[in-house]
Amino acid sequence: MEGEKLQTTEERFLLSAMQHGDLKAYGVLFRRYYPILCAYATKFVELKDAEEIVQDVMLWLWENRETQTFETSLSQYLFKTVLTHLVDFLHVLLRQSI
User: How far is it, in rounded angstroms, from Cα 66 to Cα 20?
Assistant: First the structure.
């Protein structure tokens, strides 16, 4: 797809290692993406909720590591997934306030 950044060589290596159960590779990815994903999520929700949403996404990444493939960059995938979780979270909040 035009305009989408493809995975870097390092990202492909880390993803491959993680998919084979390498917890250190997952740790590198977690430390790389967790802070920026939390900063992104706090534009929409409070820090506590942002951290929980991002932790859920990162845990899902580890738990589904053997079956996931990424057509675009991991960064794009994670941001899109966090956004989807944010929308779901905000939808629940809105329903509770009605």
Answer: 7
The pTM assigned to this predicted structure is 0.87
Q: What is the DSSP string of the chain?
A: -TTPPPPPHHHHHHHHHHHTT-HHHHHHHHHHHHHHHHHHHTTTS-HHHHHHHHHHHHHHHHHTTTT---SS-HHHHHHHHHHHHHHHHHHHHHHHH-
pLDDT in tens, 13-68: 999 999 999 999 999 999 999 999 999 999 999 999 999 999 999 999 999 999 98
- Amino acid in the structure at residue 48: K
